[in-house]
Amino acid sequence: MAQVTTRCDLMQNAFPAGPLSLQGKFYVVEDIEGEHMIISVDECGSLCLVGKGANGHNELINLNDSFALSDTSKITALAVTQSRQSLVHLTFAVSNADGYDDLHVMRPMPAEPRAWLDAASLKSGLYTGE
Hints:
Layout: E1 22-30, E2 36-42, E3 47-52, E4 58-62, E5 74-82, E6 87-95, E7 101-105, E8 109-110, H1 113-117, H2 119-124
Antiparallel strand pairs: 1-2, 2-3, 3-4, 5-6, 6-7, 6-8
């Protein structure tokens, strides 16, 4: 007679309070620990990162402050790629209240979660055009 066994893990939603509302596409890269980092623009036009936090749960991080973007700035275009060496390439366009647009291009950054949470690291990774 055959033996049948089962095993089940309880799946917890990343955001149990409700759905995540995105404005457009989202990009998924793999961090150095094999976890997913999701980069997107939310419904308010802010640049967001979803990644595993220190407590092991996914966290939604607004990156606008890290890049010193004003509250009236809106992300209008976003492109993210990851190289075979796990470096993340991030480019985004920002529409400002003064009517001017800015293009931000990051130097390739390691897919290390702590680096993406450090505002100084993110700001220093921007090409300045100089």
